[in-house]
């Protein structure tokens, strides 16, 4: 297997780091990246080949990892260069019909939505393939994204906008909550180091517990919440502030933005 990443930014870095820590070698990976400093960073960190020109020869898979705003230009430049490669796109919002049109009618396409914990093999990726993608190609897409975490196939492309809003953007929501908890811990007299350790281990522990359990999350929460105790008092404050509604609103805003990106760039010919 040989893969060419087009775009070598945050997400490509997370995926490449994850693949190399698995059973991939640097010689199986090439990165096309316009920014010279980014190319140097990738070569220095991972030892992968990098190039400015959009070369895809010798690769059986191409992974498009540029921003949605850059995808039309990248796909237009790639049109006609593809032979039989499987093309994976991870761009938020960009729909496969539009991408196929920009690629001159190329249909071997899978839309994926991974997340940055891929770097530490704790990613999760939603996938949707066009009907023209073969079983072997679907397995290949799953092997690549599955090397860096869990995978979930969707049977309707529009659900990728929901995946984007939940798990694509999700690590940022979690870090936001962690930052807030860390600041609160510091304000109560704990040192920065103590606060960070307590916060990170609490998230990791709670997530591990949730992963191992089949119970509803509310049941796990109930087990922390002693009657008349501290948690009950804290959760009452969160409920009073309607934090649950705010989270739902934030996720809906991300979902709307994903659809909006699709609409905005879908107009391009
Ligand atoms: N970050 C995340 O958590 C996630 C991101 N995604 C998706 O992944 C994609 C990439 O996101 P992210 O990694 O954060 O973005 P970045 O901006 O970090 O990475 C994109 C890189 O591609 C480079 N680039 C731009 N044009 C070209 C070109 N023509 N050829 C080659 N390289 C080019 C950019 O250079 P320059 O900066 O100079 O433009 C940049 O270095 C986006 O579409 C995003 O929606 C999906 C899941 C999660
Ligand atoms: O913020 C974004 O648009 C990208 C997609 C999901 C995570 N980062």
Written overview of the protein:
- It contains eleven helices and eight strands.
- It has helices at 10-21, 36-46, 68-78, 96-102, 135-146, 159-168, 170-187, 192-212, 217-224, 230-240, 243-266; strands at 3-6, 29-32, 49-51, 61-64, 86-89, 109-113, 123-129, 149-153.
- It is of the alpha/beta class and 269 residues long.
- It has two domains: 3-155, NAD(P)-binding Rossmann-like Domain (Rossmann fold), CATH 3.40.50.720; 170-257, ProC C-terminal domain-like fold.
- α6 packs across α11 (243-266).
- Residues 6-12, 32-35, 38, 65-68, 70, 74, 90-92, 113-116, 168 line the site of NADPH dihydro-nicotinamide-adenine-dinucleotide phosphate.
- It is found in: Cytoplasm.
- Keywords: Amino-acid biosynthesis, Cytoplasm, NADP, Oxidoreductase, Proline biosynthesis.
- Belongs to the pyrroline-5-carboxylate reductase family.
């Amino acid at each position: 297997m040989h893969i060419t990443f087009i775009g070598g930014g945050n997400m490509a870095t997370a995926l490449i780091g994850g693949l190399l820590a698995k059973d991939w070698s640097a010689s199986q990976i090439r990165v096309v990246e316009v920014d010279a400093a980014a190319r140097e960073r990738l070569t220095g960190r991972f030892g992968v080949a990098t190039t400015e020109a959009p070369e895809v020869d010798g690769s059986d898979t191409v992974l498009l990892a540029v921003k949605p705003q850059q995808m039309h230009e990248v796909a237009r430049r790639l049109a006609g260069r593809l032979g039989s490669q499987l093309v994976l796109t991870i761009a938020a919002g960009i729909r496969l019909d539009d991408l196929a049109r920009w690629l001159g009618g190329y249909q071997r396409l899978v839309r994926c939505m991974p997340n940055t914990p891929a770097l530490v093999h704790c990613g999760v990726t939603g996938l949707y393939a066009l009907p023209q993608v073969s079983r072997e190609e679907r397995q290949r897409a799953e092997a690549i994204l599955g090397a860096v975490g869990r995978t979930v196939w969707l049977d309707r492309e529009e659900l990728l906008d929901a995946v984007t809003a939940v798990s694509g953007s999700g690590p940022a929501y979690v870090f936001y909550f962690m930052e807030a908890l860390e600041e609160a811990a510091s304000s109560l007299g704990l040192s920065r180091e103590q606060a960070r350790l307590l916060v990170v281990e609490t998230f990791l522990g709670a997530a591990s517990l949730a992963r191992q359990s089949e119970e509803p999350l509310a049941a796990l929460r109930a087990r922390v919440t002693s009657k008349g105790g501290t948690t009950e008092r804290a959760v009452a404050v969160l409920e009073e502030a309607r934090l649950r509604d705010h989270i739902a609103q934030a996720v809906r805003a991300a979902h709307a933005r994903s659809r909006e990106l699709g609409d905005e760039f879908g107009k391009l010919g």
